[in-house]
Specification:
mainly beta, 1 helix, 8 strands
Amino acid sequence: VTIGGPTTHNGSLAVSGANTFTMATGAVNLGTGALTIGGATTVNNSLAVSGANTFTMATGAVNLGTGALTIGGATTHNNSLTVSGANTFTVGTGLTSLGGGATITGGNLNLGNNTSTAHIIAAQATGPALTNGTNATCTFPAGANANSDTSGEVQFVMGGAGTANAAICTLTFQTAFAAAPTAIMSWSNSAAALIPEATRPFVTTTTTTMIITNNTTGLAAGTYKIFYTVIGR
């Protein structure tokens, strides 16, 4: 059948058996109807979803072969996103935000390269909290929310001698670790740096706290500052 002009079908149009429905350079316009395809479909040109319409997949898969998928707007993945083999997942100048954790099972985590610089920044909406020990007033010099469970600076003002082997300051993490983390403490003012080695405070941790503790000799009166870094394990 050769049709030279527009054709309107008010009922179903069926192509039976192994026969083919072929379009040349024209278009098929379904209006508000639906197109249901029961078998495999090959698209040899662009596939566009216009306006605010949605392209929805059920339990099937979209296989692009060696083609590219370009997404101009936000994308939501409700399940896993896998990059197979030696392929690379690349983000340009945008930001990748992970609401959950990131697990790296092999290879290196590289920050920056020979032409760019990257920093590790631990940011929290609410910082950790401090509890004073005997004769100590513990504060965050830059403000509580400028510090994090991962890193920051603590100042402790000793109004009198500390108690041997007792806590000077207890920092309570905003979010508990699965296991007691490793904490590193370093001096950030001259008074702290001048504490004799044998009487310097030390740091211990639990899953919820980092504790700056007096040595066998309590810390003398004065104002001391330390930087801290905490790494989970």
